[in-house]
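Q&A log
Question type: sequence-to-structure
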Amino acid sequence: MHSLPVFLRLQGRAVILTGEGEAADAKRRLLERAGARIVGEGEEAAFAIVADGDEATVQRLQARGIWVNATDRPDLCDFTLPAIVDRDPVLIAIGTGGASAGLAKALRQRLEALLPARLGALATALRDARAAIRKRWPDAAARRRGIDAGLAAGGPIDPLSDLAADAVPDWLAGSGDADADRLEKIRLLSADPDDLTLRAARLLGEADRVYHAPGVPAAILDRARADAARIAASAPPARLESGLSLWLEMAP
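Response status: OK
Response body:
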């Protein structure tokens, strides 16, 4: 990745904003939505936005150890500002590393049309149900699998359904659980992760551990769940372990 995506809590914190015009006004509105306290160049802050992209201003701020975003100057930026889909408390950030703000905007508009207006209500309902979820699935691995099954496409709390937030109590009261412990085998036809089938991509996102033969590229393994164990092996495991295990190998 060219950058590490992060979400900054700016409520009440100082952020320097310099420049005038439409770009500065847009950045001011964004900072105000995040609750930041907007200050001038001479004040103390950890972050700054130089809305006119002035290189001299950027250099002065960076010399003070301040992280800077310079509008339309990705080469000068310590951080970039993404296009944002806001379904509070769900936030989706789309960045291109400054390559194309137009592309980020187009993707945001597509996602805006795709995601239900009540997606944030689902997140809030799941937050409020944490204690009930832990009671239903005391084991952490079983809890993750149960949540994954509920949120799956067509599941009882499918996040792309407008009815998902209201379905949380029925989901918790239901009798269906996630699939039992199992091993799934995937034969890869290509080293390009963009060629993964939908099924393979879904399994990689759900797996507890990924066994892989020599020759499976890192780009494929990077598509697995971040905290899934990656285990190099010459053959599939002989013993079935808890949760979902995958065996990946390249097709001859």
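Response note: DSSP finds nine helices and ten strands in the chain.
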